[in-house]
Design goal:
This protein is mainly alpha-helical. The chain has one domain: Growth Hormone, Chain: A (Up-down Bundle), CATH 1.20.1250. It contains 17 helices and two strands. Strands 1-2 form a two-stranded antiparallel ribbon. A hairpin with a 3-residue loop joins strand 1 and strand 2. Helix 1 packs antiparallel against helix 7 and helix 10 runs parallel beside helix 16. The protein is globular and about 65 Å long.
Length: about 450
C-alpha cells in the first residue's frame, strides 16, 4: 500500500499544519485562560476581573471553575474513543478525516469565545450553568476536529522520514499558536484603553476565534487526503478497537507517561500568570514574555532535537526532557524560598523550558506514528484514528487532573502575602514529571 501512495510534498504538509495552528489557538482559551478569567490572580492593587462565579471552596477542597474544567475534560476524554471509531469507519468522497473536521470547525471556533461571555454581570447560578453548557459543547466539537486531524499524522506519514518532518512542522505550528495565545495578557492591555478589563479580554478571545477558524478550514479545503494518505476501511467496532489499542504494551507505556507530561504542561499554562505575579513579583503582562521566550528557545532547538533523535533515538531524548522539565518546576518553586534573583530566574527558567517544550512538541507524534505502523504491520489492522484518539484521551485525562488539582491548591494561597498554593503547584508538577520519566523507561523503541 505504501508504495502506491505518493509521499506528501512540503506544500501539503504546510497546509496540514495550518489546522494544528487553528485548533491549538481555538483551544488555548478554554485550556489555559478560563481559570485566569473566572478565578484571577490577586495583585497588591486589585483583581483583574469581577467575580462571575462562586470563588470559594466547594466540598472543602475544590472550586467551581476547577469542577467545570474537570467535568468538561472528562466528558471530552470519554467522547474520544467514540469519535475515533466513527472517524476510522467513516467513508466520504471528500475524505473521511476532512469531512468530520469540516463539520466541527465553525461551532468549535464559535464556542471558543462564547465561554468567556457570562450572561450576568455578577456572580450567580446562571453564569455557572452557561459556563457548564458552553464548556461541554466546546469540548465535543474540539474532539470532533482533533481526533480525525491527529489520525492524519500517520496516514500522511506513511514513509518513516516524513513522520519526524510532519511532527516537527506541526510542533512549530502549535508553538506559534501557543505564543499568540500567551499574548492574550499583552493584547488585553492593548485593548484596555477606554474599555473594562472584561471587554478588553473578550475582544482578545474574539480575535483568536476568527484567526483559528480560518486556519482550521485550510486543510479542510486544500489538503488532498485522497491522494497522499494511506487509508483502509476499518471493520471492527469502537469497543474492539479500544481493546486492541490498549493491548499494545508499548502504547500503554507511552500513553501513561504522556499523561504526566500533560499534567505538568497544563500547570504551566494555568499557572504562568500566578508564577509571574506571586513568585517572580512581576506584572501579569510578563506572563506573555515568559511564554514567548520559552517557545522562541524551543524553535531554536528544533533542528538540534532532530539531530539528537537521529543519533540517540526518540526514547533517550524524551527521557532527558522529562528530567529538565522537572528541574524547571523545582527551580520555580524554590526561587523565592532561597532568595534567588527573581528576574534572572524568570528568564533562566523560561530558557530552560525550551528544551522539553521542543522535545515534547516534536517526538511524541512521530513516536506514536511508529507504534501505529508497527501495529498495522503486525496485525493488519489500520487503527490510526483510535490510536491517536486513545493518546488524546490520555492527554485529556492529564489535563483534567491538572484542572482539578491546580485551582484546589490555589485555595492555600494565591496572593502576594501568601504564595503557598502557587509554590505547591510547582512542586506537585515535579512529582508528575519524575513519575513520567520512570514510566517512560519501560517503553521499547523499535530499531529502524
Amino acid at each position: 500500500m505504501e508504495k502506491s501512495v505518493p509521499r506528501p510534498p512540503l506544500s501539503q504538509i504546510l497546509i496540514y499544519a495550518c489546522g494544528q495552528f487553528g485548533w491549538a489557538l481555538a483551544s488555548f482559551g478554554a485550556g489555559n485562560l478560563l481559570l485566569y478569567f473566572y478565578m484571577p490572580p490577586e495583585s497588591a492593587d486589585a483583581v483583574a476581573f469581577p467575580p462571575y462565579i462562586y470563588q470559594g471552596a466547594v466540598l472543602g477542597i475544590a472550586t467551581v471553575i476547577g469542577l467545570v474544567n474537570f467535568g468538561g475534560r472528562i466528558f471530552d476524554a470519554i467522547t474520544d474513543p467514540l469519535i475515533a471509531g466513527w472517524s476510522d469507519r467513516r467513508q466520504s468522497k471528500y475524505g473521511k478525516r476532512k469531512s468530520l473536521m469540516g463539520l466541527a470547525a465553525v461551532p468549535f471556533a464559535l464556542l471558543s469565545f462564547l465561554i468567556f461571555y457570562p450572561i450576568a454581570t455578577t456572580s450567580g447560578v446562571e453564569n455557572t450553568l452557561w459556563l457548564v453548557i458552553g464548556v461541554f459543547l466546546f469540548y465535543l466539537f474540539f474532539t470532533m476536529y482533533l481526533v480525525p486531524y491527529n489520525a492524519l499524522i500517520s496516514e500522511l506519514g506513511h514513509h518513516p522520514k516524513d513522520r519526524m518532518l510532519i511532527s516537527t512542522v506541526i510542533s512549530v505550528a502549535f508553538a506559534l499558536a501557543f505564543i499568540l495565545g500567551g499574548g492574550a495578557y499583552g493584547l488585553q492591555a492593548v485593548f484596555a484603553e477606554g474599555r473594562t478589563p472584561t471587554e478588553a479580554f473578550q475582544m482578545t478571545m474574539l480575535l483568536f476565534s476568527v484567526v483559528a477558524l480560518i486556519m482550521m478550514l485550510v486543510p479542510v479545503f486544500f489538503l488532498n487526503e485522497k491522494k497522499y494518505c494511506t487509508q483502509s476501511k476499518t471493520v471492527i467496532d469502537a469497543g474492539q478497537s479500544v481493546k486492541a489499542v490498549f493491548a499494545n504494551v508499548n502504547f500503554k507505556h507511552f500513553a501513561f507517561s504522556d499523561l504526566t507530561y500533560w499534567v505538568a504542561l497544563t500547570f504551566i499554562q494555568l499557572g504562568v500568570s500566578y508564577y509571574t505575579v506571586n513568585i517572580f513579583a512581576m506584572e501579569t503582562k510578563y506572563a506573555t514574555v515568559f511564554l514567548t521566550v520559552s517557545f522562541l528557545v524551543s524553535f531554536l532547538l528544533y533542528i538540534p532535537i532532530n539531530m539528537l533523535v537521529t543519533k540517540l533515538g526518540k526514547k533517550a531524548v524524551l527521557s532527558v526532557a522529562f528530567l529538565i522539565f522537572a528541574a524547571s518546576f523545582l527551580l520555580t518553586g524554590l526561587t523565592d524560598i532561597l532568595g534567588l534573583p527573581q528576574q534572572i530566574m524568570f528568564y533562566g527558567i523560561a530558557v530552560l523550558s525550551g528544551f522539553p517544550l521542543a522535545a515534547f512538541g516534536i517526538i511524541p507524534n512521530a513516536l506514536l506514528a511508529d507504534v501505529v505502523h508497527e501495529h498495522e504491520a503486525r496485525t493488519g489492522q489500520n487503527l490510526s484514528g483510535m490510536f491517536y484518539g486513545a493518546r488524546t484521551f490520555m492527554m485529556k485525562m492529564g489535563i483534567s487532573l491538572a484542572n482539578l488539582i491546580f485551582p484546589s491548591l490555589l485555595l492555600l494561597g494565591k496572593s502576594a502575602d501568601n504564595v503557598t498554593g502557587v509554590r505547591l503547584t510547582a512542586f506537585v508538577a515535579v512529582v508528575f514529571m519524575l513519575g513520567g520519566f520512570f514510566l517512560f523507561r519501560k517503553y521499547r523503541e523499535e530499531q529502524r
